[in-house]
Amino acid sequence: MNNLVLFGSIGGDLAEIGKGTAKTFGLNGPDLISNIISFCIVAALLYFFAYKRVLAILEERRQRITEGLANAEKSKAELQRTEAARLEVLNTANAQANKLIEEARAAANRVREEETQKAIAAAEQIITKAREAAAAERAKMLTDLKREVGRLVVNTTATVTGKILTPEDQKRLAEETTRQIA
Q: Is residue 51 domain-resident?
């Protein structure tokens, strides 16, 4: 029972302290209630007319940000696909360029080889013609030499013997000289 009296006494003391504090701070019950009602009305009006609009604008902004992020991801994926396609085209172009260079080198080697063979054949033909010309010139020179030596032998013999040689003697001496030279 003592407990109930104790609680009752504490409750009364608290009420007195509350009234004293309210009087000290200038709290007036009816003014407080009217301020609370006014605050609730203003809060309700702000909620229905301003807060919902702000929430709608924030939601719309959040959706735009989400769409922007999604578009950024799409753009990034498209950029990666484009980069991959670019690299593929570049690799293909490099492969084709290397193939063309190798074909050009092979063609140049083939043409060089053909031209070398043509030059060798032309050089051999020139050498053959030069040899033939040299052989013909040598044969002509030998013929001229034999004729000249024969004439000199006939003249020398005619001068040494002091007689005039007949055409038959001249022919015989020229033939003997030719046989001895050859």
A: yes
Q: Is the pLDDT score of 51 beyond 80?
A: yes
Q: Find the range with the poorest average confidence among 90-104, 105-119, 145-159.
A: 145-159
Is the Cβ–Cβ distance between 150 and 174 less than 8 Å? yes
The model carries a pTM of: 0.39
On whether the CB atoms of residues 165 and 173 are closer than 8 A, the answer is yes
89, 105, 109, 110, 120 from 102: Cα distances, Å: 20, 5, 10, 12, 26
Instruction: Give the count of domains, the chain.
Output: 1
Query: Above 50 in pLDDT, residue 118?
Result: yes
14 within domain boundaries: no
Residue owning tokens 């003997």: 176
In angstroms, the first-to-last Cα distance of the chain is 174
Tokens for 2? 């003592």
